[in-house]
Amino acid sequence: MSTTATNQKTARRRRTFSGRDKATLGFFIGIPTFLHVALVWFPAVATIFLSFTYWTGIHISDIQWAGTANYENIFFNTPVFWDALRVNVVWLLWFGFIATPLGILLAYQIDREIRGHKFYQTAYYLPVVLSLAVIGIIWNFLLRPDGFINGALGLPISEAISFFGDDRYNLWVILIMASWRHIGYIMLLYLAGLKAIDATLREAASIDGATEWKTFLQVIFPAMGPVNIIVIVITIIESLRAFDMIYIIYGGTGGLPILGVLVFQNIAGEGASMKGAAYAVILFLLSIVPIIAYLRQQFREDAK
Amino acid sequence: MSSVTENKYEIISEKKLQKRKDAQKVKDRIISIFIGLFALVWLFPIAWTLFSSLRPYKDVRANGIFSFPNTLNFDNYFEAIRRMELPQYFWNTIAITVPAVFLILLLGSLMAFVVTRYSFKFNVALLLLFTAGNLLPAQLVFIPVFKMYLAIGDLVGDRRFLYDSPLGVILIHVAFQMGFATFVLSSYMKTIPKEISESAQVDGASVFTHYFRVMLPLLRPPLASLGVLMTTWIYNDFFWALVLMSTDSKRPITSALGRLQGEFVTDYNLLAAGAMIAAIPTLLVFFVLRKQFVSGLTLGSTKG
Question: Is the ipTM of this complex over 0.95?
Answer without folding.
Answer: no
